[in-house]
Amino acid sequence: MKSLRIIFPDQLSKNNPVLIDIDTNDFLLFYEPIDTFYEIKHHKHKLVLLLSAFRSLVSKQTHKNIIHHRVSKGENRRLADYLKDILHDNDFEKILISKPSDFKVYKDLMFFCQSNDIELSILDDKKFISSDSDFEEWASDKKTRIQEYYYRWLRKKYDILMTDDQKPVGEKWNFDKENRKGISQLKTDIPDRNKLKPNKITFETMVDVEECFPKSLGTLENFNWATNHKEAENLLDDFLDRYFHSYGPFQDAINKNNTFMFHSLLSPYLNCGLLDPQLCIDKALLKYDNSNGDIPINSVEGFIRQILGWREFIKGVYWENMPQYKAHNYWSHKKKLNENWYNGSTGIPPLDDAIVESNDFAYSHHINRLMIIANLMNLTGINPNEMYRWFMEMYIDSYDWVMVPNVYGMGSYADGGIFSTKPYICGSSYMLRMSNYKKGEWCDIVDGLYWRFIENNIKFFESNPRLAVMKRTLSKMNKDRKKMIFKKAENFIETNTV
Fold this sequence. Notes:
Blueprint: E1 3-7, E2 27-31, H1 36-39, H2 44-59, E3 66-69, H3 79-90, E4 94-98, H4 103-115, E5 119-123, H5 132-139, H6 147-157, H7 200-212, H8 229-242, H9 244-247, H10 267-270, H11 277-289, H12 297-321, H13 340-343, H14 349-361, H15 366-380, H16 384-394, H17 400-411, H18 428-434, H19 441-456, H20 458-463, H21 468-475, H22 479-496
Parallel strand pairs: 1-2, 1-4, 2-3, 4-5
Helix pairs in contact: 2-7, 6-12, 8-11, 11-12, 12-17, 14-15, 16-17, 19-22
């Protein structure tokens, strides 16, 4: 049976099953222009990372029947249209592909194969440790989806950070409470990040991205990302050597002068396959075991929880709830973003700095994303589809499976609580506590947005025992102050939305 094997730019795993046991007569299609490249203005850093790494992979292939379809200026054809051309010329009977990162691509492939009487084989996505069946098995008898419990289940199943008698190392499953130090508690310098030298393929890719995607966000002048497996693994080692010790305690801290802090910056490589998640965990455990107590347990557990806990859980939630997930809008928000959310001129310093950082580096750490950007978008009444588009456009590690649950779930609570027990919202006090920003007029705007949101959704908050205190606090607020901060909030909304 003549088969067509397809690989996308975010399917770079060394053990991608598509590249295993290839018949000499099979065709191997390396397809660059994933349909979302033309639907969403992905950040230029993301495009260069993916395409450069992809082209490096192609250059190492020795299979005789290779088709490499590159991006081109002005291209607007869909994957299905291109597959029709290949089918016409080669008459293949089967398509093999690692499970795509986007439900729509997955659905379109299924439709194409059904319409053309072609067998479709969806192979495992090796960018993850768990299988789809793992989540299905765990969730089968659960009424709710709580990340913590799936994380514990996976720890046990894959024997990660467990003792011989099947208890968690450190006698606790979760050390999150130890990972909430504010920036004021930081007494050591943050090491500078290594500078990477782009290779020939990366330089050529930069030219193509500028030509083919001129309207995409960002500039390539400060591009500093690994574009092959070796470079990515070297950055993993560098993180473990120089940043791992302080990673846990300052995981949630916001530094207006350094968004990278002690974060690993490894998510872009995990999400495209340049790094294997099991390798990251194994090396982190080895570093911890050999550190003679220098690496704190909260750093290693916090790192593993991000990979084995949140990442695997979010993948499971995504596939369980698509395609209906993107239709959720629990708060009925209708506002749209204006240009201020792209150039960082909203008037709220922590928000504007986070936006500028995101634009410059295609990256900002999780607290900036969740408690600053997404929080303020939600409090402003931004439609979750708008929020989703912004996050997809802005970040180098953005993919549909990542951003749908994170935006519609954690970031906005637009899903009504599929896996979050409450909305992730905050006022200025949290931002001040976790950061080195000074109190100013912006605090009144943030607090106005916060309390205005609560008042507009008061029935929700009074019905939740964990949140009912907010109604009582709001009722005791000084009337003049309430009027003043609400007015500032409304002015902010008027200025920063369409």
